[in-house]
Write a structure and sequence with these properties.
Length: 112
């Protein structure tokens, strides 16, 4: 993933409202009105959040007559997940080493 795309993805994900919108879209397509319904925001504010998500490539908007459904686009999330995976492996290795070290300390305390 290109760094600028990764930056747009994480910048879009940094906002809890946008994460809530993505969670709703993970259930299926929705209109702006449907997305705005549970949120304590105006339609204009929700539209601004949708624009950020769309510019980051996280959503797309269709057009069927007057209906403009929004849908989740998984590719940027998949790329961000791959990027994060390297760090998950690092932390898991660190935790494994810490657990082994603590186990050694505990063994020493029981024999000392």
């Amino acid at each position: 993933m290109k760094p600028d795309q990764l930056n747009r993805t994480f910048a879009a994900l940094a906002d809890p409202t946008r994460r809530a919108i993505l969670a709703k879209l993970a259930e299926g397509e929705a209109t702006v009105n449907e997305l705005a319904e549970p949120l304590p925001l105006t339609l204009q504010a929700v539209s601004k959040h949708l624009k950020v998500l769309e510019q980051a490539g996280l959503i797309s908007r269709g057009r069927t007559a007057q209906w403009r459904p929004c849908r989740l686009e998984p590719a940027p999330l998949r790329e961000a997940t791959h990027w994060l995976e390297r760090y998950r492996q690092f932390w898991e290795g660190s935790f494994d080493r810490l657990a082994a070290h603590l186990h050694e300390i505990q063994k020493g305390d029981t024999h000392g």
